[in-house]
Amino acid sequence: MSNETWTQVDEYIAERFAPEDPALTAALADSEAAGLPPISVSAAQGSLLNLLAQATGARTILEIGTLGGYSTIWLARALSADGKVVTLEASPKHAAVAQRNLERAGVADKVEIQVGPAQETLPRLIAEQAGPFDFIFIDADKESYPAYLAWTLELARPGTLIVADNVIRNGRILNETSDDVNVQGARRFNDLLAAEPRVTATLLQIVGSKGYDGLALALVK
Ligand code: SAH
Ligand code: DHB
Ligand code: MG
Questions:
Q1: Which residue, judged by its Cα, is nearest atom 9 of ligand 2?
Q2: Which atom belonging to ligand 2 lies closest to the Cα atom of 211?
């Protein structure tokens, strides 16, 4: 099976289950025009995040890594009427692009972007007792995933679903001696998750328009 087949099947899935709408299309276009890297989740992955967030009945969602707000729009659309997304972004430039994209999508009133390194905003959220969040999506710097796991567990409750992107990295997570800090971070995260008594967890391999990668799924006990 070729990479091209994955991409075509991803398009087949997206056409049916994640049809592009003007707000999502514009969010990607404006992100690209502003020079943001093309690393948003795919449309099919966005639809999966939306479904999973709905499955938890999420009223409060925490996202780490906003970029241009593409995944944030998918998540905000899963919320019940009075729901809220808190999304953490280190780059003021990315946050500004995301804010415009969220406004255009009509979800800005449900989303709070907190600008700054998540290493600072997460401990602040814990200190402020901002949790518990019903659904948590980890998608920022992979090097810090192990730390993000520890913090997000403090912001969770039994039944919270924690999802983390990019935990397979084209299979590079098999490489014990990788000198890539992103791979090392994802490897350490996966091992911590596997050993974590507070969650029921697994990894989901995904192929598609973004290549070969995967999501970690962890349900807090
Ligand atoms: N979730 C987005 C993609 C996020 S890309 C989507 O699918 O649409 C990763 C983002 O994490 C980038 O915008 C990057 O600036 C941000 N980031 C990197 N390191 C960070 C940190 N330490 N704290 C918060 N955000 C960070
Ligand atoms: C890449 C992809 C991602 O989904 C991400 O969050 C960060 C980086 C990448 O392909 O480099
Ligand atoms: Mg990602």
A1: 39
A2: 10
Please give the distance, rounded to the nearest whole angstrom, from the Cα atom of residue 66 to the centre of ligand 3: 10
Of all protein residues, whose CA lies closest to atom 8 belonging to ligand 2?
Answer: 39
Q: Measure the CA–CA gap between 199 and 191, rounded to whole angstroms.
A: 13
DSSP codes, 189-212: HHHHHHH-TTEEEEEEEEEETTEE
Tell me if 139 CB under 6 Å of ligand 2: yes
142 lines ligand 1 (CB under 6 A): no
Pocket flag, ligand 1, residue 40 (CB < 6 Å): yes
45 CB under 6 A from ligand 1? no
Please tell me the distance from the alpha carbon of residue 194 to that of residue 30, in angstroms, as a whole number.
Answer: 38
Is the CB of 94 inside a 6 Å radius of any atom of ligand 1? yes
**Whether pTM exceeds 0.90:** yes
DSSP state of 159: T
CA distances from 134 to 25, 49, 53 (A): 27, 13, 8
The 10 Å Cβ neighbour count of residue 47 is 18
Query: Along the 221 residues of the chain, how does pLDDT read in single tens digits?
Result: 678 899 999 999 999 999 879 999 999 999 999 999 999 999 999 999 999 999 999 999 999 999 999 999 999 999 988 999 999 999 999 999 999 999 999 999 999 999 999 999 999 999 999 999 999 999 999 999 999 999 999 999 999 999 999 999 999 999 999 999 999 999 999 999 999 999 999 999 999 999 999 999 999 99
Tokens 């290493």 label which residue? 119
